[in-house]
Amino acid sequence: MAVYFAMAFECPSCHEARSLAVVKRVEVKPPAPSVETSVQLVECKDCHFKALALYQESGADAAESEVVSHRGYSLDAAGFEVLSQIIKDCPDRLNRRCRCPSHVKLDEFASSGKWPGKSEKSPFTLRISSK
Q1: Would you say residue 120 has pLDDT above 70?
Q2: Domain coverage including residue 111
Q3: Alpha-carbon span 38 to 65, nearest angstrom
Q4: How many domains does the chain contain in total?
Q5: Assign residue 15 a region: left if phi > 0, alpha if psi is -120 to 50, beta otherwise?
């Protein structure tokens, strides 16, 4: 597992502190003009739990107070690999205005709420580990 982002979270499966990390991410078209949205894949280094995480930050560009949502949805191995490949195929992952086939597909998933391999379990909130 390659970790690309330094922030680590508590794993909702094994509950180990600082074991869940973002391994891939891509910025996507926001649902509203003042909302930043990032699709992330997260994986636990201890139990290998895999999930989709959706990070949304609103009000960052406006005078209103900032609101952050970081929700996770467990994925089966096949869904994780499909999303991993889609993200990998994007030539400009940090450009939310990119209109490559990967971004188009991710926008379809986001608007429908139907992600490959997404569990029907309730979503979880990503919690930064304090340990």
Answers
A1: yes
A2: 8-125
A3: 19
A4: 1
A5: left
